[in-house]
Design goal:
The chain has about 250 residues and is of the alpha+beta class. It has 8 helices and 8 strands. Helix 3 packs parallel to helix 6 and helix 6 crosses helix 8. It is a single-pass membrane protein.
């Protein structure tokens, strides 16, 4: 699919996630050599995708290897795939870019849901509900990250935590990721805030390293704040901000 030159600036997320056709990927790779802004944006998307995967990763249960090895002998192998006819390409570039959320979801889900998918049937409805909730979160995260107007900003909190915010005005959503976040302590939690012209409004809780979708209206906010609050959160900040990070314009 052919694109106008201006379209190249919207392909950073798709390029990073390997969701471009060969000709588009080659063209964008050449574009990167001359566009510092797109090189920076592609690098930020790559770092953010890796951080998101790490933040939501869950180790499989200790018994999973034994269960899988025991089940192998009873699993029928699939026959080799033999193509019967050539698939007709249809709007390849557009479909690839629309598939970016799925590509991101797959990359994050590999870490977050890999263990759950194998053993959830043995752990009842609770794990199924957790899997559905995790998938919904992944879908929202991937939609924000793959939005054409997605913008990324990185920061460091006063307690040393590394933070990333990806926001999209078009989706009116923002994703917050924290790494190296110290344990808040008994009876405490970290709370996120959206700064609306000096008024701090609650935007969700994060108790440890991970990724959350900010609540509220990020499109009208100028910054994201992080404070240490009593468990359950507070209607207004009760401590000095550990982080006040300006949202990307």
């Amino acid at each position: 699919m052919n694109h106008h030159a201006t379209d190249a600036h919207t392909l950073a997320a798709a390029y990073t996630l390997g969701a471009l056709e060969d000709d588009e990927r080659n063209a964008f790779h050449a574009h990167l050599q001359a566009c510092e802004a797109c090189r920076q944006e592609a690098a930020e998307f790559e770092a953010t995708a890796a951080r998101l995967a790490t933040a939501v990763a869950q180790p499989p249960p200790a018994v999973i290897k034994a269960q899988v090895m025991a089940a192998i002998d009873g699993v029928r192998q699939l026959p080799p795939r033999v193509p019967t006819h050539a698939a007709k390409p249809a709007r390849g570039g557009m479909l690839r870019r629309k598939a970016v959320p799925l590509a991101l979801a797959a990359s994050v889900a590999a870490a977050a849901l890999g263990g759950i998918a194998v053993w959830q049937t043995q752990n009842g409805q609770d794990l199924k509900a957790q899997a559905r909730q995790a998938q919904q979160q992944l879908d929202t995260i991937s939609t924000v990250l793959a939005a054409p107007d997605a913008r990324t900003v990185h920061g460091r909190a006063a307690n040393g935590a590394l933070t990333t915010v990806v926001s999209s005005d078009r989706q009116n959503k923002a994703v917050f990721t924290a790494a190296n976040l110290p344990t808040p302590g008994a009876g405490k939690t970290y709370q996120l805030w959206l700064d609306h012209d000096g008024t701090m409004r609650p935007a969700g809780l994060i108790g440890h390293d991970g990724t959350v979708i900010l609540t509220g209206n990020p499109a009208d906010a100028g910054a994201v704040g992080l404070t240490l609050e009593p468990a359950g959160g507070s209607p207004q900040p009760t401590t000095d901000p550990l982080l006040l990070m300006t949202l990307p314009a």
